[in-house]
Amino acid sequence: MVILNRPLRFIIATFLACLPLMSFANQEVDSAHVQEAAHEVVAEGHHEGAHAEPTDVKSKIKAFIGHHVLDSHDFSLTQDDATGEAWGFPLPVILWDDALHVFSSAKFHHGKEVAESNGNYYAINHHDGKIYRTDASGTITENEETGFPTNVRPIDFSITKTVVSIIAAALLMFWIFTSLAKSYAKNGGIASGVGRIFEPIVLYIRDEIAIPNIGEKKYKNYMSYLLTIFFFVLFLNIFGLTPLGINATGNLTITFSLAFLTFLITNLTANKNYWGHIFWMPGVPKPMRIILAPIELLGVFIKPFSLMIRLYANIFAGHIVLMSIIGLMFIFKSWIGSSLSFGLSFALSILEILVAFLQAYIFTMLSALYFGSAVEEHHHEEGHH
């Protein structure tokens, strides 16, 4: 049985590692078509003095990477560069612009057309992926000094790719832990089914993260949040490795929200010793306490800020690097360069799976560490100093 399990595990690991490679699912264009397009660009813009062919390919790759890391109002699975036709599925657009506007993102035709709703016209700005009110021709004017659009931007409540991934992660977590709780009730505290996979992770978070950092007396008050934040970040990271182009934890607003929750829980549940240690640190000379107080207070805000930036930067950079390496296959146009690029991207994809777990672990560990410092009971005897 052990011999049979090893090939199965290898196949599963290989499949997961190849998922990010599938996100570059654009249909290939042979070299003749690429050269023909390059000659057209040269004919139209030869006065610029640039190398049209590599510039064109690189610009396409750069645009694809930019589209991949940004949020979107639809899922684009693949695209035919020759015809410009794209395949995917739309998402609902919900706007408030003096009135409620609800329509399908299919009206935008992947950002190429203007959508009309109740007499108003809306277009997607390709630079930031946001929706702006325009005229019937979809004109978006930009400020000459700042470069930002001057069009009216409606309040956007749309269900985007990031929102879909968040809902999917929440539903998945609800199903997993509901099944785990039911299996405990039926089998006398023994997990069954899918719960057997996640029970060791739950126990690890309790025994190796919560109890050592918070303490046996108060760790239960924070276990629900620690479990939620770990699996939420983990599932979103895993979703980011699929061909759907999801980059939720590479979105600064998402990581800010998660870090802000940790900040609120830490400071709202902190005891008087925690605040006393910040504003009037025991064990140091009194003049130094005045100097250290603003530094310690600044640390209260630096801790969640580091949580936000760490998760965002690691996931965002991982997506950029992986997509850039995959894009090298289209630049090299040779079996040697493409093979090297594929092998490197394959190895990096496996590393990204590790990073997905590692970042969830680090976020949970640091949150538990902050909670522990907030509820720790200090016993200082200032008479000895």
UniProtKB/TrEMBL annotation:
Q: How does it sit in the membrane?
A: Multi-pass membrane protein
What Gene3D superfamilies is this protein classified in?
ATP synthase, F0 complex, subunit A
- Report which superkingdom the organism of origin falls in: Bacteria
CDD domains hit by this protein? ATP-synt_Fo_a_6 (cd00310)
The UniProt keyword set, sorted, is: ATP synthesis, Cell membrane, CF(0), Hydrogen ion transport, Ion transport, Membrane, Signal, Transmembrane, Transmembrane helix, Transport
Predominant location category: membrane
What Pfam families would the database entry show?
Answer: ATP-synt_A (PF00119)
Give the matching InterPro entries: ATP_synth_F0_asu, ATP_synth_F0_asu_bact/mt, F0_ATP_A_sf
Q: Which residues cross the membrane?
A: 163-181, 225-246, 252-270, 290-309, 315-332, 344-371
Q: Where is the signal peptide?
A: 1-25
Q: Where in the cell is it found?
A: Cell membrane; Membrane
Q: Which family does it belong to?
A: Belongs to the ATPase A chain family.
Q: What does this protein do?
A: Key component of the proton channel; it plays a direct role in the translocation of protons across the membrane.
Protein name from the UniProt record = ATP synthase subunit a
The taxonomic lineage of its organism, from the top, reads: Bacteria, Pseudomonadati, Bacteroidota, Flavobacteriia, Flavobacteriales
